[in-house]
Amino acid sequence: MIDIMALLNEIKKAPYREITVSAPHTGRIEFAVKDTGIKVDGATGTWSERPGTLLARLIREGNAKPLHAPEKGEVVHFFDIEDGQFVQAGTPLLNIRHFLTKQEVIDIILKKALHLFKAPEKGRYYFVSEIDIKIKSQGLRSVNIRDGDEALILSRMKRETIIHYEGPDGIIYTTYFNSNESVEMGGPLFGVCPEDQVNNIKTVIDKIQSGWEEQE
Amino acid sequence: MTEIDKQIQDLKERLQYIQDIFGNRENANVSLLGSKLNDFVQALPSLGPSQIKRQLGSLSDLFTFLENKLEKELTPMDRVRIVRHPQRICLKDILENVYDNYTEIGGQGEYSIDPSMIIARAYITRNVGKKIYKQPVMVIGQEKGHGQEFRNGGSVKPWGNAKALEYMKVAVTENIPIHTYIFTPGSYPVEDYPGAAQQIARNIYAMAGINVPVVAVISEGGSGGAEAIGLADTRIMLSHGYYSVISPEGAAAIEGRAKSGGRISPELVESCARQLRITAQDNLKMGYIDRILQEPALGARPEHFDFFKKLRQEVILATDEIILSVRGIKLFRAIALRKLNNPNIYVRWGLSQKSGERLLWRRYQKYRSLSQWAYRDSTPAWQKYKRAVSETSWSVYSFLRYEFFGRHQRAITHLAEDVQGEVHALFGRAMHKASRLLRKLPGVKNEKEEVCQLTTLSTWEEGMSWDEHCRYISPQANQDRTLPCPNTVKFNCLDLWAPDLFGDFAGVCSHCGHHFPMEYEWYLFNVFDPRSISEFSPRLESLNPLDFEGLEHKLDQAKKQTGHKSGCMTFEADIKGIRVVVAMLLARFRGGSVGAAEGEKFSRAVEQARRKHMPFLAYVHGTAGIRIQEGTNGLIQMPRCTLSVRRYLEAGGLYLVLYDTNSYAGPVASFLGCSPYQFAIRSANIGFAGPGVIRETTGLDIPPDYHNAFMALSRGHIQGIWDRREIRNNLHHALRTMGGEFLYYR
């Protein structure tokens, strides 16, 4: 059992993630961003079609390949590489500090606190009628589920298969699928948490929703 | 509200209208009207009834006087503001006031597949002598609906155009004339099926073959949207309307970006509106409309009933004239119509089969003769003469070969085939039995099949030999560097060395198959048989017919850079021995945009293919659309070339279109999009408007692969996607399979 409050406090101490940008292949590096403290943007647009801030160019065989910032953040550290130096593939170039958003914090906590039940194969998923009725009448988080219970119906090409739940006992805390959309194999279907933890998680998440300040 | 209040309100509205039309411009007359009206309203309580009446009368006279004066000061941009004003007459007003009765079909108000396109079955009653005639007509047009939101400003969606097409066909079945009313700033540029460009192409193609009279009335003729219902026998333009290849704002955005990259200034928009020559007078001078219908000062509004009366007479007259121009018995009535302008002459609005054919031929000739002055043909006189002689002799040869001998020959061949079949059916069994008997005779040996295969020599299958090509080295291959494939992240493609990529791999990533752009020369050397290309009309030259600022210089640059005189190269060539006529749009010449010269070359190529009974291939190396700086001279190429294509296809031709790189707008929405066989090379992007324009006009966010060839294929706009390395084989294959036995249907 994990202590969720402790986890949140730990995140609060360092509310960011550091991303190391390294050279994708060998080549001569030319930095476009030269100082620490510069703010950079990640890819934007509905389809992430606009690349992030240009960090550097990696030149190999006359081919200048641009390196863009993968996430929004701030350049905090340059590794000991000079402009124009030849680097090997995988050489770390610089660190970007990405401050966590509300959603990211919630995701981290839920990922640690919940047991995710994943899709065994690609297809559309529905809850079995027993669970479905319960969810509809009493809402999510009212369904107790045990290892081996019939949980879902997988529907694919008009073939319907019953899926049994495997994992620790608990309550269905959240679902990640829509019954009209197909889920890829390995995609999360729902998250289960032990009964006694439910309130704990709820308070923490409410706290994040109301109190988390996103830093630029 | 008293009568006086009503009159004051009316004057206020007139003033507001004038202010709207003149935009932000300072005008002494407009401010004079404003101050006079203001003074009157302020002094109102102190005036007696007779004074009020007198002053109102003089104020109203002043308004009329100054409106007439202001009329002369209208700039082209003011006219644009007039046609876009919510008080401008719209199609519903015309249906109410011009026709005697109508039933709207295909939708009611909001509840329509596309409320911006209205179709109505209407009739006009005519009293001639003691008789009353009801003459039915199909009315089709865009509806701006005095600013109703759901009308979308008359910007028609593809399915709206499809609806229009459906009812044009109904009109043909019923043999009644079509009146189209063009009130559109342009088509709604979405690609969802049937697709903006493809549907407009289908409409134009169909209108090229509609054998009932079509009269078009243009108020706001914006680009492709206007052409979708605009291919008419008579085009009447309202005096305050505009007819243009692009909205002045659009043109300014294109021009402005090239110059500064900042916000577009109103002065630039104004100057573009002036330079594009969009007014009725300009279009009449250039020959793209047949006549102008004079509107009241500062444009027609719904209360101008006299104007509707004039419009009614005009459309009746136009329809009568078209009918009489193709009908047998017409002499006196035609004279009466033209000379006396007498509307009380009855002409039946149905056409016989033969008259219909004459109408189509007249329509073809009308459009074929347009925009002849907008390009230069610097071919020496003796070559022109030679061309004329060769064209005539080809026509004679074709007639003899295909029409005269061809028909008899075919009849004989068919007869021979039938006879052969009969003989075979009759003697086949008998021969079989006889041969079995023969084999049983002691002297004759039966050779086994395996033995036969092993002891006789094998031969190469026909068509397997590889022609040695003259090699073309792309200038891109002459650089010592590598290039990254854009799909590296997805497929882990390795970087490609330029000499390999452009020299040996035909510009195709050897790992994922991504196509890098290649020059058109590569295709000349690698698709067609070596030394088989013979170019024709190379000296047809693009000009700057509207004296658009800066175009001259840009054209000179393009001519110097490419060595071509226009953006279209036309030639005859062989593909594995099959002779084809090719028209190629060059992306490097002003983005492959189509103007008068390109349109003329394209039409000539189609005619050449028709004359010589050859398949016709339009290879689109890239086209950015119609060359906007040529204004309507460019726009008119859409119906013009489509008419040529239709004539060719109806004569039995095989028309293939192959898209490469980027193909957008006008050409795709007309003479390219109307082909039944359109293919694309993997790298192609095909569409009506680019992502930027779509975002601006519709507010929709467009995914990056929206115009991609695969998306076009899944929307049903094209029929297949080919690998660049396989074009030669695929083209040959397509010619053999679609072209049939003679590579020409009939």
Give structural notes:
The complex is a heterodimer of chains A (216) and B (746). Chain A is an alpha+beta fold and 216 residues long. Helices cover 21% and strands 36% of the residues of chain A. In chain A, helix 2 runs antiparallel to helix 4 (198-211). The model of chain A has no long low-confidence stretch (mean pLDDT 90). Chain B has four domains: 3-73; 90-248 and 277-368, Alpha-Beta Complex (2-enoyl-CoA Hydratase, Chain A, domain 1); 475-517, no CATH class; 518-739, 2-enoyl-CoA Hydratase, Chain A, domain 1, CATH 3.90.226. Chain B is of the alpha/beta class and 746 residues long. In chain B, strands 1-2-3-4-5-6-7 form a seven-stranded mixed beta sheet, with helices on both faces. Chain B has 27 helices and 20 strands. In chain B, helix 8 (223-227) links the parallel strand 5 (214-222) and strand 6.
Q: What structural class should be given to the helix and strand makeup of chain A?
A: alpha+beta
The pLDDT mean of chain B sits at 89
Helix content of chain B: 40-55%
Strand content of chain A: 35-45%
Shape of chain B: globular
Stretches with pLDDT under 50, minimum 5 residues of chain A? none
- CATH H-level superfamily title of the largest domain in chain A: RNA polymerase II/Efflux pump adaptor protein, barrel-sandwich hybrid domain
- Can you give the mean pLDDT of chain A? 90
Please work out how many helical segments of chain B DSSP would assign: 27
**Domain count of chain A:** 2
Distance between the termini of chain A: 33 Å
Query: So what's the overall shape of chain A?
Result: elongated
**Uncertain residue ranges of chain B:** 460-469
The CATH architecture name of the largest domain in chain B reads: Alpha-Beta Complex
Q: CATH topology of the largest domain in chain A, anyone?
A: OB fold (Dihydrolipoamide Acetyltransferase, E2P)
From the N-terminal CA to the C-terminal CA of chain B, the straight-line distance is: 74 Å
> Could you tell me the strand content of chain B as a percent range?
5-15%
Instruction: Kindly state the number of beta strands of chain A.
Output: 15
Q: Trace the largest sheet of chain A across and list its strands.
A: 1-8-6-3
For this structure, the quaternary state is heterodimer
